[in-house]
Amino acid sequence: MKPNKFKQELLSGRPMFGAFVSLGESICAEIAANSDLDWIIIDTEHAPNDIRSTLSQLQATDAYDTHVVVRPFEGNKALLKRMLDIGAQNLMVPMVDDAAEATAIVSYCRYPPGGVRGVASSRAARWGTTTDYFAEADDHVCLIAQIESTEGLANVEAIAAVDGIDALFVGPSDTAAALGHLGNPGHPEVQEAVIGALRAIRASGKPAGVYGATPDAAQRYADAGATFVIVGVDTMVLAKSLNNLAAQFKS
Question: Which residues are catalytic, by number?
């Protein structure tokens, strides 16, 4: 059974910095995995990824040391099963609002009797050749609950207390929208809510993650206790770099 090094790193508390991979192509994911980033997250919530494109990106990044997380577009039982079956070990589920929802998500990612995950000799089990897969799979799944609503903020401690939720990740953009400040995650009310959530997660003993859209924001969140931080998005990095390149030659 392939050990989950990302889960081990999360528990160690070592700061890790990563990026969203949203271009939907395996070679782009491979370029990201070949960088000096600690981790990347293949996004299917806000990017044009499906099961097949996610699989191809997992295959392309498998040979690299950078940790790979997948964000499904929702915490659906069948969808989480399929993500695990194609070989994703680390899942970040968006819009987790309360402990009941977190508990359900955990059950979808565990085999009976501890959960309800369907059984198959899939890619994750190396098509039946990994003989210890079913005995050890549950222990190697890393499940991250994403907090990005007023309900989620109010229930941070309860969500963190759910057995099987390995870490919590705060999304400032959706938090801003939920608090009435759409497009302004830097608003003082949003910053207070995000930093308060990060501190509450850390106080619970669980690792805290967050998206830091700017270096100042990333540092501020790290100071509040975040240990795994997204510091960029591949689409935005490409767009900015191309515009900067064009500006060098156009007056």
Answer: 46
